[in-house]
Specification:
Blueprint lengths: L4 E5 L4 H12 L3 E6 L5 H8 L6 E5 L8 H5 L4 E4 L13 H20 L4 E5 L3 H4 L6 E2 L14 H20 L4 E7 L1 E3 L10 H11 L9 E2 L1 E3 H13 L6 E5 L5 E2 H10 L12 H7 L4 H6 L8 E2 L2 H7 L6 H11 L1
Parallel strand pairs: 1-2, 1-4, 2-3, 4-5, 5-7, 6-13, 7-11, 8-10
Antiparallel strand pairs: 9-12
Helix pairs in contact: 1-8, 4-6
Length: 328
């Protein structure tokens, strides 16, 4: 039996590397998209793969170039590529345009190549970005025009909406599902940027941050998120479904700090930064201004559909936090 080929967009990224690792361990061949083929050696090194089970295609979400070749001959696509940048942009089109156009570009070329299965990475914020408390699940949608959300959340809402609109409009003969992770932590495989959540832990253990962000969010291990993508890929009943990948209970960064301190990381601050200070400083600082979208919120995740359909459950958050710190 010929090995199935899965295209992983953004394979050199934090989550993309972990998705590729799970796929390779499950016996798939992986074709990864990178913006430059110069990244191939570092990806191979991170994954420990030198043979033909891993190949590459040079593509960018903002251009059609390379996507036909990338999608030709693949059996499925896991669309991961999408940057997570906490800093609020001067023009939110910096997020919106590539998020929407990139998603549509991947879907169009996948459809034209006859791909039968697509799993796309979203975020829990497209379900609960507008909520301050309570429980959210696959049936919840964050309004695009909610005044409390930031440009990043709006870009993810727009990208997911574009995905589902494409599925309805094209009536394409493919199974499409989305994965909605909480804040992703866990040990990075590569040496590149591992995202804002991991950089927050890095700042904590180095003592370079004056205090702990006063934020509580659903969290999840990057290894468990990668597994959820592959489980959705393999589950026959995943079509048109949205899967939450997170711990059910919200977890505060103060709890993260406490776990780190108990693990021997003595430079980790022990106190939260006052919310009022963040709100005031956010007037002058775009990164802090974006953080305001998470202040005063504590939402619970309904992961029952993920658990039932995919037989999925996350590892303990303490294991995730300490594994992350050890690698950093």
């Amino acid at each position: 039996m010929t090995q199935q080929i899965v295209l992983v967009t953004g394979v050199s990224g934090y989550l993309g590397l972990h998705v590729a690792k799970v796929l390779l361990e499950c016996g798939y061949q992986v074709r990864g998209t990178v913006r430059s083929l110069s990244k191939e050696p570092s990806v191979r090194e991170a994954l420990g793969v030198t043979d033909g089970s891993l190949s590459f295609a040079e593509c960018d979400l903002t251009s059609d170039q390379g996507w036909h070749e990338a999608c030709t001959g693949v059996d499925a696509v896991i669309h991961v590529a999408s940057p997570f940048i906490l800093k609020e942009p001067k023009d939110e089109q910096e997020y919106l345009k590539p998020a929407v156009e990139g998603t549509l570009r991947v879907m169009q070329f996948a459809r034209d190549a006859g791909v039968k299965k697509v799993v796309a990475t979203s975020t829990y914020l497209t379900m609960a970005g507008h909520m301050t408390s309570g429980s959210f699940g696959p049936g919840d949608f964050t309004p695009f025009d909610d005044p409390t959300i930031n440009a990043y959340i709006r870009s993810k809402i727009a990208a997911e909406q574009a995905l589902w609109d494409f599925v309805r409009r094209q009536n394409a003969e493919m199974s499409v599902s989305t994965i909605h992770p909480g804040a992703i932590l866990g040990p990075p495989l590569g040496k590149g940027d591992a995202g804002t959540s991991v950089s927050t832990i890095s700042a904590m253990i180095s003592g370079s941050t004056p205090g702990i962000p006063p934020i509580s969010v659903p969290m999840v291990d990057v290894r468990d998120v990668a597994e959820a993508h592959v489980l959705a890929l393999e589950f026959e009943g995943a079509n048109n479904k949205r899967y939450v990948a997170a711990h059910s209970e919200p977890i505060s960064y103060l709890e993260v700090a406490t776990t780190l301190r108990s693990g021997g990381y003595s430079k980790v601050p022990g106190k939260e930064i006052p919310e009022g200070l963040i709100r005031v400083l956010g007037i002058f600082n775009r990164e802090l201004r974006s953080m305001k979208a998470f202040l005063g919120k504590s939402v619970h995740a309904d992961t029952s559909q993920t658990a039932t359909d995919l037989n999925w459950s996350p590892r303990s958050i303490s294991e995730t936090i300490l594994d992350t710190a050890r690698v950093l």
